[in-house]
Amino acid sequence: MAHVSDLISVDIDKYLDSHHHKSLLRFITCGSVDDGKSTLIGRLLYESKMLFEDQLAALEADSKKVGTQGGELDFALLVDGLSAEREQGITIDVAYRFFSTDKRKFIVADTPGHEQYTRNMATGASTADVAVILIDARKGVLTQTRRHSFIVSLLGIRKVVLAINKMDLMDYSEQVYDGILADYRVFAQKIGITDITPIPLSALRGDNMTERSPHTPWYAGPTLMDYLETVEVEEYALEQPFRLPVQWVNRPNLDFRGFSGLIAGGSIRPGDRIKVLPSARESTVTRIVTYDGDQESAIAGQSVTLTLADEIDISRGDIICKADAPAPVADQFEATLLWMSEENLIPGRPYLLKIGAKTVGASIAHPKYKVNVNTLEQLAAKTLELNEIGISNLNLDQPIAFDPYAENRETGGFILIDRLSNDTVGVGLINFALRRSQNVHWQALDLNKTVRAEQKGQKPAILWFTGLSGAGKSTIANLVEKKLYALGKHTYLLDGDNVRHGLNKDMGFTEADRIENIRRVAEVSKLMIDAGLIVLVSFISPFRAERQMARGLVQDGEFLEVFIDTPIAVAETRDPKGLYKKARAGEIKNFTGIDSPYEAPENAEIHIDTTSLSAEQAAEEIISALQKAGIV
Fold it and tell me: Is 216 in the same domain as 259?
């Protein structure tokens, strides 16, 4: 809401014009649980007279009903909106509030302090100019204080207010204040935070919030509101090379084609020569179109539509740059990751990576190390757990245009998404492209999949047999290959056990090893498809994500999932290799169906129920399905 100004009643037009031209500051409040973040924001709103009468009445009623201050005003209730937050007295979600004073407009993000919700804190910090890091004067610098400060540093927030709160509970002791500040400065120096403004506060009592407190005569710095109203935020984005991530191809009619998005860096004018990445096509800007009409120039932070002199192919997710300062393009990176999922990072598992408006497939290598947020020590790691921060290499399934995050937040930050649940599982910051991604190029060949398949008189395909151990995959796949051979088809059968004698002999049976096992086989299958073959792949392949990854490597219609559906009780009675018996005895770990899950296909192209079909009948049914699909 807006600060109540006298101009409203005197000259509303002048008020609106002055309000429109006020600068905007985005800031975040963060720190450990119960440091007083929500109370601080509530007190700012209250002291600045930014509450309507009905809001104040509701606050008074809620304070008596669910407040934590013995019937006095509980300012945290102005921000903590979820019922669970009010019951527990903690912030869970990120709460955004807009307010303004005579000098400036503000958007503040109140973020959770509890370690479980660190991912929400990172979300709030991603767009902030200033971080207000709260410390409870009774507790000093805690692990979560360090964690949030480290994330603030990683996300490129250069200005920090160290709000040492609840000074009233420590008798406004200068010694306590100095001790906490000294401890924090030691840690901040290690992570590169140098612009620190410390303020002793009592958010509940209002000390040094909007007016200097008589209880801290030893403090000569600004109040919190003074700082927020006057802090200068450097326009780093204006100094960067021009970047426009395309969010929308604007085609309202046959006579207009423009490319819309929020400028992430630099400036642009009609007549400027541009390059579109990753395609590297070039053109010239003819118009800069906005809601208010055409403009002679546009800068970072503005949403615009560009029209070009040439009809070139540009899609959502591409980046428009100036031709003389293009963004780099690569498909392999080193990145800093903050893991945000309750399920650990699984190296090699395919994820979706979303950077700007572009979404691509990605896999993550084993972390190089993870960071101890207390000591900043680099620790060896095989995975990342919830809220852990680490460094790892990423491989994408196609090149993208980017900037290192340190140079541009918008074109260097990304999120990782689980392919099946569509949940966000991590956030990442691109550090740099790997050199090998620049040195390895795809070699063009004269012969391709089409001519190789025509020579063989067939349509190439992958028949991916999946099911439990003992389901009959290898037996049925072997029969299907014999029938295809009899029909004159060119085939190859990749069997799980056989491949582990050679290509994958170094693979174990951990979840990560199984994922890498399938990734390698999927890549080999893709090569065989390119050779024009019909490939039969017989692997347990227990995880849907990896089977989906294999499907995504080839064109539509070339991948047929064959689910050999056998109940575990039936498969266990067969147990041709004695594996179930060993697993039950604890001699084999991570055995599918016993102590490792099997995720059955949900929409397999071919479903074989082995409780009602013999192996020969199953093979005949598969051949019939291939004929209907035009493979045979």
Answer: no
Q: Residue 501's domain spans which residues?
A: 449-628
Residue reference for tokens 């088809």: 489
Position 263, amino acid: I
pLDDT for residue 48: 64
pLDDT bin (cut points 50, 70, 90) of residue 63 is: low
Strands (E), 301-450: 303-308, 319-322, 329-339, 350-355, 358-364, 369-371, 378-379, 389-401, 413-417, 424-433
Report whether pLDDT(316) > 80. yes
pLDDT of residue 419: 86
Backbone angles phi, psi at 241, to 5 degrees: -60, 155
Q: Report whether the peptide linkage leading into residue 278 is cis, meaning its omega lies within 30 degrees of zero.
A: yes
Q: Does residue 60 surpass a pLDDT of 70? A: no
- Are residues 313 and 336 both part of a single domain? no
Cα 257 from Cα 251, distance rounded (Å): 5
Question: For residue 441, is it within any domain?
Answer: no
Q: Are residues 226 and 245 in the same domain?
A: no
Give the span between the Cα atoms of 483 and 503, in whole angstroms. Answer: 27
Q: What is the pLDDT of residues 394-421, one digit of tens each?
A: 999 899 999 999 899 899 999 999 988 8
pTM metric for this prediction: 0.75
Structure tokens at 269: 């004018």
Within this chain, do residues 203 and 254 fall inside the same structural domain, yes or no? no
DSSP 8-class letter at 399 = E
CA distance 261 to 456: 48
Which tokens sit at 210? Answer: 């909007």
- The Cα–Cα gap between 608 and 610 comes to 6
Q: What is the pLDDT of residue 51?
A: 52
Catalytic residue among 202, 267, 541, 596: 541
Residues in the chain: 632
Give the Cα separation of 162 and 200 in Å (integer): 8
Structure tokens at 270: 């009609």
Does residue 38 carry a catalytic annotation? no
Phi-psi region of 522 (alpha: psi -120 to 50; beta: other; left: phi over 0): alpha
Read off the pLDDT of residues 319-359 as tens digits, 9 standing for 90 and up: 999 999 999 999 999 999 999 888 999 898 889 999 999 99
Q: Does 393 lie in the same domain as 301?
A: no
Instruction: Please tell me what DSSP assigns to residue 285.
Output: E
Only one residue has tokens 């935020």, namely 233
One domain, residues 594 and 622 = yes
